[in-house]
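Need tokens for this chain, all 117 residues.
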Amino acid sequence: MTMSEDDRLRAESRAGVLKALAHPTRIYIVDLIDREGPHCVCDLTARVGADTSTVSRHLSILKNAGILSDRKEGTTVYYSLACSCIAEFMAGLENVLHAKYRNEQKAYSAVMASRVD
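Here are the structure tokens for all 117 residues:
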């Protein structure tokens, strides 16, 4: 059985979200907003250590992917997580990293044990 059109579209949509997250600066921005709450571009520019246009481009990618939402207060735009599931997703990624690290440690220990014999 081949992939249906619905399955293909769903996979493409998911890949779009993952692609938006596939940059260290964007992951940092999402983590920062998750931990501290909404931030404006000027705050994020200082925290990221990049120029305003670069941070704005990252924010635009995250917003277009549905990861961030924004609200305007006067002339300032604040960015926040679009839904709490993003924080849960990031926690899931941490679980994957921990499992990978544990598996690598087991493999290393096995190699080292075989050298002792």
